[in-house]
Amino acid sequence: MKLHRIRLECTAIALLLGCTEVYAGVIGTRHDLNGLLGNRAVTEDFEGLNVPNGAIFFISDPLNSTSVKYGQGPGLVVPGVDISYPSPGNGFLMWIGAGYLGQPSQDLGPNGTAGALVLDFDPPTAAFGLDLLAFAGFPSPAGVEILAPDRSTVLFSTTVNVIDPAMPVFFGFADPGGIGRVRLAGSEQSPLIDDLTFGAVPEPSTFVLIVSVGFLLARSLRTDYS
């Protein structure tokens, strides 16, 4: 009977939260990412610039929703993300056409190996995910570094092996406190990116609701087992 009562209270909590999940850590699949972000999710597929198949357009950074490149724009990418390649040299972004060295569709990357491709989220995102790719014949481990909204505190770092452009590798991460910056670097070739999905951090009132409901759940457990 006590277990039944707890189940009812947990169901009420889920309804009160609107099935919102609070999760921090690596996200395994794009399906899981979309489940976490819900209707806050936006996706940039890097098809906004008209790049001929098999071609590359070199883009001076930063790249954001206000950018005008090759006479096209603004609105080349979705609002909320600023993409740059602050390399030690005169680095450029590459907007890569489908078919160039095996790319399955248009994607984006840096034109060198020094430095890192940087994604800045404004406002910070609660979670993000993207496909990592490499040029055909140039496999490379991709270093991923995730930073807090202050863009200096490292939340997480890892290395992802990227081998075949025909088999993009999904990587995602969530932190309810917010993600302000992501840095992507490679030892042989900095990774290419496609299908970047992200969403804003929920309003503070959402977190207050989550904390309040957590207190109610804890109290229900104490009531039944004290």
Please provide a written account of the structure.
Helix content is 20%, strand content 37%. With 226 residues, it is α+β, with helices and mostly antiparallel strands. A hairpin with a 6-residue loop joins strand 8 (140-147) and strand 9 (154-162). Helix 1 runs antiparallel to helix 3. The longest helix has 22 residues, at 204-225.
Strand-helix topology:
Layout: H1 2-17, E1 25-27, H2 30-37, E2 42-44, E3 56-59, E4 81-84, E5 93-96, E6 107-110, E7 117-133, E8 140-147, E9 154-162, E10 169-186, E11 192-200, H3 204-225
Antiparallel strand pairs: 1-10, 2-11, 3-5, 4-7, 5-6, 7-10, 7-11, 8-9, 8-10
Let me know the number of strands: 11
Compute the number of helices.
3
* Class from secondary-structure proportions: alpha+beta
Q: What's the SSE pattern?
A: HEHEEEEEEEEEEH
Poorly predicted sequence stretches spanning 5 or more consecutive residues:
1-21, 205-226
Kindly list the characteristics that best describe this protein.
226 residues, alpha+beta, three-stranded antiparallel β-sheet, 3 helices, 11 strands, 20% helix, disordered C terminus
Short description:
The chain has 3 helices and 11 strands, in the order αβαββββββββββα.
